[in-house]
Amino acid sequence: MWELIRVNKRNSVLLLGAMGTVLLILGFVLGMVFARGNPQAGWVGMFVAAIIWLVMMGVSLSAGDQILLASSKATPVTPDVHPMLFNVVEEMTIAANMPKMPKIYIINDPAPNAFATGRSPETASVAVTAGLLTKLNRDELQGVMAHEISHILHRDILFVTLAGVMLGSIVLISQVFLRGMFYSSLGSRRRYSSNREGGGQAQAIMMIVAILFAILAPIFAQLLYFALSRKREYLADAGAVRLTRYPEGLAGALEKIAGTDVNMESANKVTAPMYIANPFRGKKAMNLYSTHPPIKDRIRILRNMTHGAAFTDYEKSYEQVTKKKTVVPASALKPEEVAIRDASGESKSTQTARQQARQVGDLMRTVSQFAFVTCGCGLKMKIPPNYKHNKVQCPRCKKISDINASD
Asked: Which of 12, 32, 47 is nearest to 213 (CA)?
């Protein structure tokens, strides 16, 4: 396992270096353009880009996980909100030999999904949507939590966060330059037309090159960012199977997640790679910059693992399904036997679609601190947190109930 972490760190450093180089080159080119071709101004532009990069990196290291959770509208919860979730996370924490149980958050969203964040296993957090908790059975939820804890163990989350910060830096600088070009285009056009014989043509060519680079740099950075995410999803799947010893649990969860047609309102292009599956549906999910490998391939790989749940078993299944090699680093492919266990007694769900939708609503209201009052006539009333009275009247039987005494 430590060899796998070492390889992941090395690859991450290479990727971060490549994205940092793109950022510095962008700063250099834009500095020269703003100074009309002065090379010294290019170095100044590179220095400014490096300062922006370092500041955003510092912010990401100190509070990146909290920023990500806040932007995803994740709410910290206690065990009484969803006891099974806490029990499953505790089981996977022990199985992974983590020093501390991750903090648990719920996202008030009906789309099923989950992600993990944090700088280290000691400061890690996992966030799941209300939709995920109502659609999955215990084995499937265990597979998802094992996947996210594998991301934490492999040190994926920290480096993906850092890569996202640099991607944001590149996009920010590019947008500032392009917007500035838009507002000053008329004046620049007159200036270059009047100075054509004095080197204006060279400056115009340099301006065009800078504009092209400002457009292509974020695209190149996104490709690097998303390429990193694709491979690490496979590795987290392999780690999850090894922790749970039940490939069908994660396969079933991915199948249910892929089967939904609901877009996540709280997800965006920066946070999308953090989720276990692409949070976008339809046209948003069908693009060259997909943050995840094909979910059908991931499911086929998991269901093809019939002889064991070790890293070597996942590698063999991966090669058979994708016709490619070496998704798991060679240093992690040590001979070991990890037997596949049987399904638990809670592997089947008997809820109807209507019952699941009602459960999603109740869970989302619980996370939003609604109060639930069950009247003597059997009606269950849902009281919003901004309700300022201590009592409520039942709309059915008109009986007055005490909110503080609600169940």
From this structure: 32
